[in-house]
Amino acid sequence: MTTADIQKTAAEKMAKSVDSFKNELHKIRTGRAHPGILDQVHVEYYGSMLPISQVANVSLLDARTISVQPWEKGMGAKIEKAIRESDLGLNPSAQGDLLRVPMPALTEERRKELTKVVRHTGEEAKIHVRAVRRDANEQLKKLVKDKLVSEDDERRGQDEVQRLTDRTIAEIDKLVQAKEAEVMAV
User: Fold this and answer.
1) How does pLDDT run across 162-176, given as a tens digit for each residue?
2) Is there a contact between 27 and 180 (Cβ–Cβ < 8 Å)?
3) Which of 32, 134, 168, 177 is at a distance of 20 to 30 A from 78, taking alpha carbons?
């Protein structure tokens, strides 16, 4: 393994951390509706727990309403119960086979709680990025110890890993600020 391989691996892991962080941000709801909010809600379907998107068609009716159209007739009540019991604070209403899930407006207090959740999630992503940096630096030190690269190469490799870490953390900070602004917008 060379310093370039270590840097490439670190870059890939950091990119995966950012992608994972973006996915977590999508789960944090704002005042607007989007079908991805229901991805974490699971419903019992013939003995196994499945995400709602695998047993129903989830789409938007308007900016504040999600529609859920079950593929089987008997699933409507189970899906409605699963959404109601989830920690999302949503209250679906049935209209025949179609479920309408209105997104309630967020209170100021709830918005502040959500910004704390966003910051905490961002901090966890930064911790993961720093762990990747630490692992890469340890691998570089091991290469020097095994006399596979010079100390100058190790220093250059560590500097490059640090620059990569700084860029990734700056990207995470930008995402946190954007999501906080989105959550606080009325």
Assistant:
1) 999 999 999 999 999
2) no
3) 32
**CA-to-CA distance for 185 and 30, rounded, in angstroms?**
9
Alpha-carbon dihedral angle through residues 106, 108, 113, 115, given to the nearest 10 degrees = 90
Q: Is the pLDDT of residue 156 over 70?
A: yes
CATH fold of the domain at 35-102: Gyrase A; domain 2 (3.30.1360)
Distance CA 118, CA 163 (A): 25
* 9 vs 127: CA distance, rounded Å: 17
SS3 7: helix
CA atoms of 59 and 116, how far apart (whole Å): 29
Question: For the chain, what are the domain ranges?
Answer: 3-27+107-184, 35-102
Element (H, E) at 61: strand 56-62
CATH topology of domain 3-27+107-184: Topoisomerase I; Chain A, domain 4 (1.10.132)
- CA dihedral 161→163→168→173, nearest 10 degrees, is 140
Return the bridge partners of 66, or none: 60, 101
